[in-house]
Amino acid sequence: MPQPIPTNTTSPTHTTPGQPAAATLPLHPDPASLPSKERILHAARRLFHEQGFHATGMSTILREADVNSGTLYHFFPGKSALLVGVLQLYTALLRPIIIDPVEARSADPVERIFILLENYRDGMAAQDFRMGCPIGNLALEVADDDPQAREWIARNFDGWTAAVREWLEQARPRFKPDADLDGLANFILTVMEGGLMQARALKSRAPIDHAIDQLRAYVNLLIIAPASHAPPPNPTHT
């Protein structure tokens, strides 16, 4: 579930047009009311995104979650297990935090893709181009060394592309018969991750703006021209 998840722990209430839904909405109205396990997961999620997995100490997670070490280790025997729990949490948040707000803004399945990407861009801009995609960050930081985390990172990416692929399938009649919608869904993920990484590196929205513009141009090439825009038939000579 690659997404700029909000850094607090309160739940979504609503979105408005132009609001970076995936980057600023809260996840829960009252963090203190969460059970201990959920407080640990949300604190770790936020800290791993802000500081990185390796740079985040367990003592910081204990403090931010307001639990003791016995409680944390009851649920998560080590930091790697906690990381897997955070990645599982991201998969659960994909639809309510990322996909549903986009679908609420537009009924057009193709336009939803661009609203999704613009939400990422706007979320990065709201964070002054810091932190980036939490799943992409973790993929770079831990995927080489932690097979179980790598599996759950892949599941997050798969869930994201499956949601985009569903939108593309809804729009299938608009695409040329030979359009590879599976490949296109994966390409859209690559555009998002690459655009966010470059925007973060350059502290500028220009790279992701350019990536979105190029993706739109490519998608337009795959869409069948409306009949009203088709060239006139050749005149019949008698």
What do you see in this structure?
- This protein has 10 helices and no strands.
- It has helices spanning 21-24, 36-51, 58-65, 69-75, 79-105, 109-126, 134-142, 147-170, 181-202, 206-222.
- The protein is elongated, with a radius of gyration of 21 Å.
- The protein has 238 residues and is mainly alpha-helical.
- The chain has one domain (21-223): Tetracycline Repressor, domain 2 (Orthogonal Bundle), CATH 1.10.357.10.
- The protein starts with 20 loop residues before the first helix and ends in a 16-residue tail after the last helix.
Secondary structure: number of strands? 0
Structural Rg:
21 Å
Major sheet description:
none
The arrangement of helices and strands along the chain is HHHHHHHHHH
Q: What's the name of the CATH homologous superfamily?
A: Tetracycline Repressor, domain 2
Kindly give the count of domains: 1
Architecture, according to CATH? Orthogonal Bundle
**Uncertain stretches:** 3-26
Distance between the termini: 62 Å
User: Approximately how much helix is present in the residues?
Assistant: 55-70%
User: What would you call the structural class?
Assistant: mainly alpha
| Shape verdict | elongated
Query: What top-tier CATH class fits best?
Result: Mainly Alpha
State the helix count: 10
**Beta-strand share of residues:** under 5%
Q: What is the fold named in CATH at topology level? A: Tetracycline Repressor, domain 2
pLDDT average, as an integer? 86
